[in-house]
Amino acid sequence: MGFVDSRADGRKVVLGVHSLKDAEETKQTFNISRVYNNPQFNPDNYDNDIALLKLDRPVTESPAVRAIGYSREGEPQPALGARVETAGWGSVNNLAGRTDRLKEVFMDVVNPLLCRRYDYYGSKFTDNMMCSHKLCPKPCRSIYKTEDTCDGDSGGPLVYGGVAVGITSNGGKKCGQTKKPGIYTIISNYSSWINATLAL
Question: Which sequence ranges are marked TM in the entry (predicted)?
Answer without folding.
Answer: none
